[in-house]
């Protein structure tokens, strides 16, 4: 029997619910599109902003990992009861085969992936790949980049409201004058990127659909960064902050919402294991916060935190009801 796929023409006269179903991507994220085809397809954007069907905006949680998600049980608890308000996408090493049970929110959420290396353009490629796959679902409105060592700091409702009600997207984009900021700029970036436009920020971000589209459609700055921002210019700290500053600086909160501890020094932030997860540690994350949210002073600055080792899971589970709210 031949299966006939519905065409756009066959959907024009259908009820909104049917059109809604037609717009949804397949439940199985595995596809055969090339990188070029994926980015092209993901760059589509409706010019008519009023949707002809009921659209509940979702947060796409995009996980950039090496392999397993050791903290998945904590995330399972975080997502429980909120189906329809989130999507999950996982980019891991191509050789990794996930074994999540069918009951898991992470089941079949891996996208076609390629090897990504720290500090190199392949890392940004992986992030673009995640965003592109998530953009295929028209219901995804916000996109949060996470790693396997990240945890949520609040319950799902708080996170959803904080992100959905923000006027800005959360990505750091700083004009740092020292050797680790402007010192990494290469004048071969001209004329596409002037040194005054050069920005630095955390790799971990939350952006809305408009900014995600800017990232996947970019063909102007990408070649420059791929050729002229190589270690010790760490491209994942500069490409997206610079691109989005040039395209939409007024839409950036200019800070990350992922808490990280750099107090120990070195090229990588601190990693916390079982012995670190105490009540005093949790209080240190939450207390004394003050930042700007929607142009006003606010006490919640971070919605996520990293880096947590697999051994931290049991203690995080124990303290989650008191400190994380779920």
Which fold name fills CATH's third level, the topology? Spore Coat Polysaccharide Biosynthesis Protein SpsA, Chain A
SSE order: HHHEHEHEEHEHHHEHEEEH
Shape: globular
Q: Helices and strands: which structural class? A: alpha/beta
Task: Describe the secondary-structure layout.
Blueprint: H1 8-11, H2 16-23, H3 35-42, E1 58-64, H4 72-79, E2 86-91, H5 121-135, E3 140-147, E4 151-152, H6 156-164, E5 206-208, H7 209-217, H8 222-228, H9 239-248, E6 258-259, H10 279-286, E7 291-293, E8 296-298, E9 304-305, H11 313-324
Helix pairs in contact: 3-5, 5-7
GO molecular function, one term: glycosyltransferase activity
Keywords: Glycoprotein, Glycosyltransferase, Membrane, Transferase
InterPro entries: BC10-like (IPR044174), Glyco_trans_14 (IPR003406)
Fold and architecture overview:
The structure is a single chain. By secondary structure, the chain is α/β, with parallel strands linked by helices. The protein has one domain: Alpha-Beta Complex (Spore Coat Polysaccharide Biosynthesis Protein SpsA, Chain A). 30% of the residues lie in helices and 11% in strands. It contains eleven helices and nine strands. The strands form three sheets. Strands 2-1-3-5 form a four-stranded mixed sheet. Helix 3 packs across helix 5 (121-135) and helix 5 crosses helix 7. The radius of gyration is 20 Å and the shape is globular. Residues 1-16 have low confidence and may be disordered.
């Amino acid at each position: 029997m031949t299966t006939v796929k519905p065409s756009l023409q066959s959907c024009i006269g259908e009820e909104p619910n049917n059109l809604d179903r037609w717009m949804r991507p397949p439940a199985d994220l595995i596809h055969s599109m090339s990188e070029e085809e994926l980015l092209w397809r993901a760059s589509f954007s409706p010019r008519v902003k009023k949707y002809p069907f009921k659209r509940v905006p979702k947060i796409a949680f995009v996980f950039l990992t090496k392999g397993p998600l050791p903290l998945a049980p904590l995330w399972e608890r975080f997502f429980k009861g909120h189906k329809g308000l989130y999507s999950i996408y996982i980019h891991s090493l191509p050789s990794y085969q996930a074994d999540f049970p069918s009951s898991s929110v992470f089941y079949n959420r891996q996208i076609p992936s390629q090897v990504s290396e720290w500090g190199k353009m392949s890392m940004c490629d992986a992030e673009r790949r995640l965003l592109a796959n998530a953009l295929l679902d028209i219901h995804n409105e916000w996109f949060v980049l996470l790693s396997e060592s990240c945890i949520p700091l609040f319950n799902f409702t708080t996170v959803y409201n904080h992100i959905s009600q923000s006027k800005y997207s959360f990505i750091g984009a700083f004009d740092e004058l020292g050797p680790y900021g402007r010192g990494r700029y290469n004048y071969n970036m001209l004329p596409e990127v002037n040194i005054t436009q050069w920005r630095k920020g955390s790799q971990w971000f939350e952006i809305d659909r408009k900014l995600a589209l800017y990232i996947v459609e970019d063909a102007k700055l990408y070649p420059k960064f791929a050729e002229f921002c190589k270690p010790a210019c760490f491209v994942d700290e500069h490409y997206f902050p610079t691109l989005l500053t040039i395209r939409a600086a007024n839409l950036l909160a200019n800070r990350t919402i992922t808490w990280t501890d750099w107090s120990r020094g070195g090229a990588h932030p601190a990693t916390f294991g079982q012995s670190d997860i105490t009540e005093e540690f949790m209080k240190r994350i939450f207390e004394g916060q003050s930042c700007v949210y929607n142009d006003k002073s606010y006490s919640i600055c971070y919605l996520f935190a990293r880096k947590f080792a697999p051994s931290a899971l049991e203690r995080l589970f124990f303290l989650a009801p008191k400190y994380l709210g779920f």
